[in-house]
Amino acid sequence: MLIKDLAERAGVSVKAVRYYESRGLLAPARSANGYRDYDAADVLVVREIRALLSLGLTADETVPFVECLRAGNDRADVCPASLDAYRLRIAEIDERITELSRLRGELSGLLADAESYRTEEDA
Question: Which PROSITE patterns does its entry note (predicted)?
Fold first, then answer.
């Protein structure tokens, strides 16, 4: 299938497909006229990539999942490397939550201090 057909079936733009290809996530065959020739498996791969990107993974972090699908698995997340990628992303999210909680506490303290200062000044 042509790139525009793949993009339409997978629900992404042609630009996104080209980007995935540039990152090595897709490797289409070339037809005699030089056009990219994608197959049905590529639709699944692109959908998986899109889903993983929506969870905050980078294109590079989707590689284990793509490789898992390309190895013939029904799911992209049943391979050990995919599970490791999930674990790593969860750890990154936990770190962000901790940092955001710290910042929230600091800002709340500054707000409380500023509000009490203004109240004292108004009195």
Answer: HTH_MERR_2
